[in-house]
Write a structure and sequence with these properties.
14 strands, single chain, 5-stranded mixed β-sheet, 7-stranded mixed β-sheet, globular, alpha/beta
Length: 239
């Protein structure tokens, strides 16, 4: 898998579905999302390429509960001992103590979902293993010890407990699946449990001062991300 540097402290590991991101910490690395089940070997290999050891992976931040984001968390916890952080509202879905709400598909989204599921079946992707959540995150929380303050935003709509991470000092935003990119544009991510809520959350992220946008689906925006987000028309996507 291709490992590319996005900023001096951020790297993207690209997967066919669901990119993950490493963030360098003063005492190791954090990983934002974990890919589909079976992705752990590629993630650990990338960590080695960054000069890290398994025990250097300190935190796994799950932006939400979907299979391509929490899918390899349990394997990575077993291999590294990393702590799992996730939005408080999605934590029961990640732990497996409550059923995950299902998206409400538009017609184009349903077609895309069927294609993705067919690809998962062909690749024999196994169901995700639930994992304990060590730290439940809430809107307004700040992650300390990351080299700079990291602001947590609760951005519901894609899932009830989706979160985004904003690094205001360096202008980096991890929006989770609320935002994707295509053909140089920022678009609303598909497969939302509440489309109108997702659009409102998208607009909230577009109001931030952001230079770099690290998305799980599509190419990162390496400069001028605020303008890209503000030019978006999420209400017109996937209809």
């Amino acid at each position: 898998m291709e490992l590319s540097q996005v900023t001096p402290a951020v790297w993207q590991l690209a997967f066919p579905v669901g990119h993950v991101h490493f963030v360098r910490l003063p005492d190791g690395y954090a990983l934002i999302d974990t890919g589909v089940p079976g992705s752990a070997p590629a993630i650990l290999d990338a960590l080695t390429r960054l000069g890290g050891r398994p025990e250097d992976l300190r935190h796994l931040v799950l932006t939400h509960s979907h299979i391509d984001h929490m899918g390899s968390a349990a394997d990575l916890v077993e291999a590294t001992g990393a702590r799992v952080l996730a939005g408080a509202v999605d934590a029961p879905f990640i732990r497996g103590t409550a059923p995950e709400p299902q998206p409400v598909y538009t017609v184009p989204e349903r077609t895309l979902h069927e294609q993705i599921m067919a690809g998962f079946a062909e690749a024999d992707v196994r169901p995700p293993q639930h994992v304990p959540v060590d730290v439940e995150l809430h809107d307004g929380d700040t992650l300390d010890g990351w080299g700079e303050p990291v602001h947590v935003l609760h951005v519901p709509g894609h899932t009830p407990g989706s979160i985004a991470l904003h690094f205001p000092s360096s202008g980096v935003l991890f929006p989770g699946d609320l935002v994707a990119t295509a053909e140089g544009r920022a678009i609303l991510g598909p497969f939302n449990v509440d489309r109108e809520q997702a659009i409102a959350s998208f607009r909230r992220l577009a109001s931030l001062d952001v230079e770099v946008l690290c998305v799980p689906h599509g190419e990162p925006v390496l400069k001028g991300a605020r303008e890209v987000l503000r030019a978006a028309t999420p209400e017109n996507d996937w209809v």
